[in-house]
Amino acid sequence: MHGVRSRRVGLVAAVAALMTIGPMAWGVSPAVGSPAPQALPSTVADNFWLVTASGAVEPYGVPSFGSPSGPLNRPLVAVAADHSRHGYWLVASDGGVFAYGDTSFYGSTGNIVLNRPIVGMAQTPDDKGYWMVASDGGVFSFGDAQFYGSTGSIVLNRPIVAMTPTPDGKGYWLVASDGGVFSFGDAAFYGSTGSIQLNSPIAGMAVSTDGKGYWLVAGDGGVFNYGDAPFFGSASGTATEPVERIVRATSNNGYWIIQQNGTADAFGAAASQTMLSQALMFEPITPGDKAVLFAFQQLGKPYIWGGNGPVGYDCSGLALASWQHATGISFARVADDQYHTAGVPVAMNQLEAGDLVFWGTNTADWTTVYHTAIYVGGNRVVEATGNQVQLNAISQWSMTDVMPNGRRP
User: Fold this and answer.
1) What is the CATH number that goes with domain 287-408?
2) Which of 9, 249, 283, 390 has its C-alpha lying 20 to 30 A from 161's C-alpha?
3) What is the mean pLDDT of the chain?
4) What pLDDT digit, counting tens, does each position of 320-341 carry?
5) CATH 2.170.130.10 fits 48-282, yes or no
6) If you write DSSP's letter for every residue of 333-360 in order, what string do you get?
């Protein structure tokens, strides 16, 4: 049996690499009295780039400015969007730098033998230079970025995972996975979690507006505040994907905690503000992450009725192939059977990367399901629809056809 083809299409215009498709002419209205679909995850980063270690750049509501062509010498480990959000830098573990959009290339460590791999990058306030940091805290400066010091000669308890410049760019902090903080230039030390037993390693840092405080965020969403950086809450216990960063609101009155798939939680005044576009690294951790990564690799392939790949797919064929190839997990072939039997049901506000999302003409009757897609995060899905595999928003169509729950194979 073949999967059921989607009947209404609305491609996100920002996915520049994919063909724009108009709505198809036929569709079925939901049955009267069908239950309303459940809420989607509470807050999302609506505009961001998702970057994989192999060099794929997937845009979510933002333009694609490019990505490396051909195989990389080393995997990508970090990405930074410039302050205008009209470009980004990609950085590999050997310090190779790739600049796209309105960013410029100022140098790299690609031809230097490093003691430890590069793990992070930060740009100067005017975007005319950048620093790279290695896991031992070695710092490399390019363009107008000045060198203020490093931990390269210090034996660290844990590796460095991130660096953050001061607001004026005349200093920076290095942060280790245990929350140890090292300050250089005009960066002052306000505290650390170096002596605290953490539930999850530290993943990132954000600095207060005046540089007189900072927040640290752990991979589970726990937040630690120092100096004049207030505490507004944490995502500990609620994050379903590894937390990658914390982003300050327009002043010190709130922040967003962002998971690697773009799902974000807003705290304080951030709930009423619009977050600037972010650039995120996506590392497959869970089986669902691996299914998403496989689905990304199919973007642009043709829609083929009954297609199971690798040339092309229909909607349920893509869902099945992504899970089978990436994880070895198998389930029903057809969309309505997938909704009825694949894995376990998941509330729509609890979706995780790789979960299956469904549409039906009667949301109270599983036999009316006509389309399935793979949830990525940030309320986006990868789906075979129209004439090719696409990256789209769940809400691109009327939400009245979305089934009350997803499925986790």
Assistant:
1) 3.90.1720.10
2) 249
3) 87
4) 999 999 999 999 999 999 999 9
5) no
6) SSHHHHHHHSSEEEEGGG--TT-EEEEE
